[in-house]
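Budget justification aside, the reviewers requested a transparent look at the raw inputs and outputs of the sequence design task funded under Objective 1. We therefore reproduce one unedited record. The lines immediately below are the C-alpha cells for a 533-residue chain.
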C-alpha cells in the first residue's frame, strides 16, 4: 500500500477493516466521531480478540475544533486484595505470573471509557444514536461469527503452550482443541449476550449491575483477587492530556500511568536536534530516533507510574529546558549503551475524524496476547493481565499496592499543527508504540510524506514487543544494506526482521487538512483499512 485514502465528510482507520466500516456506518447515519469510535471499539474487541477485549483498558484523546483537547483515562486499578502478602501466600514472591487468575488482578476499565465517551457525546456534541445501535455490529459479529485472521491464527499457535490450560481459553479460542485456521468462522455467543446486555442496560452494568455480579463470581472461581467491590468502585476519569510545544504545532498525548510522555519526549528531542535537516531513511535518521528513544526511556524508568505516586508532575518533564538537556546527551556518531528491559504488549489503536473536524485518537488493550488467558464462563469476557507489570519489590517504581494503577505502554496521539492541520495517529506494540509514533510523525510532518507512505515505509524497534524477547535494534529487511551496516558500525546491536513485520506494530494515521480534506493510511502489516466518504 502506497496511496493514502482521501475523503471530505468522515474517516476512520483501524487495524481490522470491519472496525473501520462500523465507524463509517455510524458517521453516515449522522453520528459524531465519539459515537463512531464506540462502534469501532466494540467491533474490534470481537473481530481482533488476540489484541484486545472488553476485559481490558482503554484511553481516549478527544478534539473539538476551537476547544482544548480532552482525554479519558479508562484504566482499572489493582484489586484491594492484590497485596504482596496475598501473592506470597500463593508462593509468588519474585514476580506476578503473566497468565491465569492471579494475573487477572486489575479492574477492566475499557467499558467505563465507552460509557464516559458516550455521556460526553450526548452532553457536549449532541449525540443521538443509542448504545443498541453503536454495539449492533459487534453483537452480530460475535453471534453469527467472523473470519479468523491470519494474525489471530498465528498468535494462537505461538502462545498455545502457555494458554491452552487457562480456564475457558480452549473452549473459546480453539477449534476442536486445535488452532483455528485463518478464514474459518469464529463464534462468541456468550460475548454477544454480554454486549447485548451492555447495550440495553448501560455500561455501568459491567461494574455495578447484574453483569458485575456475574463477573465477580467467575473471577473468584478462577483465583483472581478482584471482587464486586473493586468493580463497583471503578470510574473512568476525565483528564487534561499532556502537551508538547513543537516547531510544527502542539502535540498531545495521554497522561500517566501511560507512557504518553515518552512519545512526546522523543519528538521534542528530535525537534531540538532539527531532525528535518537529516535525510529520511538514512543511518543518521534512524540513529537519532533510536538515541532519542533511549533518553526518553531512561526518563520513563525513573519517573513514570500511577500519577498519585510520581515525584514530579508529568507535564514538567516536557519543559523546553528538560527536552534540550536530553538532546544534548546524544552522540550523533555513537550508540549509547543499552541494557534496559523494554516491555511487550498487545493493543489496537484507531482514529476517527468526522465532518465537523471532531477527532478521536483511541487505544484499547489486554496487555499480552489474549491477556491473562482466562475467559469467564458466564460472560465470555477474556480478562487482561496488565497487572503482571507490577513489581513485588516494595522499593520498585511500579510496586504493587492495592488500588494502584499499573504502568501502561498504551498512548494515543493527537496533534494540532500551526498550519491548521489536525492529526490523529498511533499503533499497537508495547514499547514499540512511541517509536512507531516517532516514525509516523517525523515522516508525515517533518518530511511531508503521505500518511500511507509514512506507515508503509520500513520501520525499526529498539527492544521487545509482543512475540519477541530480545533487546536488539530490530530493522525491517527493506532498509538499505548500507544503512544497516552503518548503524552496526555505530554500535547498535542490529537484528533484521521481516519486510513487513508485525513486530513493529499495526499503525494508522488520519490528517485533516486546513481545507477540510481528510487523508489517511492503514498498516499493510495488519488486517486494517481506512474507511472514508
Amino acid at each position: 500500500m502506497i496511496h493514502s485514502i482521501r475523503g471530505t465528510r468522515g474517516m476512520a482507520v483501524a487495524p481490522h477493516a470491519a472496525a473501520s466500516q462500523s465507524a463509517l456506518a455510524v458517521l453516515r447515519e449522522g453520528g459524531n466521531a465519539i459515537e463512531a469510535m464506540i462502534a469501532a471499539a466494540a467491533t474490534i474487541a470481537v473481530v481482533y480478540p488476540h489484541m484486545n477485549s472488553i476485559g481490558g483498558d482503554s484511553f481516549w484523546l478527544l478534539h473539538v475544533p476551537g476547544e482544548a483537547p480532552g482525554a479519558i483515562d479508562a484504566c482499572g486499578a489493582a484489586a484491594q486484595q492484590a497485596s504482596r502478602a496475598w501473592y506470597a501466600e500463593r508462593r509468588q514472591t519474585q514476580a506476578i505470573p503473566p497468565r491465569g487468575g492471579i494475573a487477572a488482578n486489575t479492574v477492566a476499565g475499557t467499558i467505563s471509557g465507552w460509557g464516559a465517551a458516550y455521556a460526553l457525546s450526548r452532553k457536549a456534541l449532541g449525540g443521538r444514536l443509542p448504545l443498541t445501535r453503536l454495539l449492533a455490529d459487534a453483537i452480530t459479529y460475535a453471534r453469527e461469527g467472523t473470519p479468523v485472521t491470519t494474525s489471530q491464527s498465528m498468535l494462537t499457535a505461538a502462545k498455545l503452550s502457555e494458554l491452552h490450560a487457562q480456564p475457558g481459553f480452549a473452549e473459546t479460542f480453539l477449534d476442536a482443541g486445535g488452532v483455528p485456521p485463518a478464514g474459518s468462522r469464529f463464534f462468541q455467543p456468550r460475548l454477544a449476550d454480554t454486549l447485548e446486555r451492555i447495550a440495553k442496560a448501560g455500561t455501568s452494568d459491567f461494574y455495578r449491575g447484574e453483569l458485575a455480579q456475574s463477573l465477580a463470581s467467575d473471577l473468584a472461581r478462577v483465583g483472581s483477587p478482584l471482587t464486586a467491590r473493586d468493580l463497583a468502585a471503578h470510574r473512568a476519569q476525565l483528564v487534561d492530556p499532556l502537551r508538547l510545544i513543537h516547531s510544527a504545532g502542539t502535540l498531545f498525548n495521554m497522561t500517566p500511568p501511560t507512557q504518553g510522555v515518552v512519545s512526546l519526549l522523543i519528538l521534542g528531542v528530535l525537534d531540538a536536534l532539527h531532525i528535518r535537516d537529516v535525510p529520511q531513511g538514512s543511518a543518521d535518521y534512524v540513529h537519532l530516533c533510536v538515541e532519542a528513544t533511549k533518553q526518553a526511556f531512561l526518563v520513563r524508568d525513573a519517573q513514570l507510574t500511577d500519577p498519585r505516586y510520581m515525584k514530579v508532575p508529568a507535564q514538567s518533564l516536557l519543559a523546553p529546558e528538560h527536552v534540550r538537556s536530553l538532546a544534548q546527551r546524544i552522540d550523533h556518531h555513537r550508540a549509547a549503551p543499552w541494557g534496559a528491559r523494554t516491555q511487550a504488549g498487545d493493543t489496537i489503536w484507531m482514529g476517527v475524524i468526522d465532518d465537523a473536524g471532531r477527532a478521536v485518537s483511541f487505544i484499547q488493550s489486554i496487555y499480552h496476547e489474549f491477556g491473562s488467558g482466562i475467559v469467564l464462563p458466564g460472560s465470555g469476557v477474556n480478562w487482561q493481565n496488565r497487572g503482571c507489570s507490577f513489581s513485588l519489590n516494595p522499593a520498585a517504581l511500579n510496586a504493587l499496592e492495592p488500588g494502584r494503577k499499573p504502568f501502561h505502554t498504551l498512548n494515543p496521539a493527537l496533534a494540532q499543527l500551526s498550519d491548521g492541520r489536525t492529526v490523529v495517529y498511533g499503533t499497537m506494540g508495547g514499547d514499540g508504540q512511541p517509536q512507531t509514533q516517532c516514525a509516523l510523525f517525523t515522516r508525515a510532518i517533518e518530511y511531508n510524506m503521505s500518511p500511507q507512505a509514512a506507515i508503509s515505509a520500513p520501520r525499526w524497534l529498539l527492544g521487545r514487543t509482543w512475540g519477541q524477547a530480545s533487546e536488539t535494534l530490530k530493522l525491517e529487511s527493506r532498509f538499505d544494506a548500507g544503512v544497516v551496516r552503518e548503524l552496526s558500525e555505530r554500535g547498535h546491536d542490529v537484528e533484521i526482521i521481516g519486510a513487513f513485520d508485525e513486530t513493529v506494530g499495526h499503525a494508522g494515521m488520519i490528517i485533516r487538512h486546513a481545507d477540510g480534506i481528510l487523508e489517511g493510511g492503514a498498516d499493510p502489516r495488519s488486517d486494517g483499512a481506512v474507511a472514508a466518504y
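The first strand starts at residue 5 and ends at 7. The two ends are 19 Å apart (CA to CA). Computational costs for records of this kind are itemized in the attached budget.
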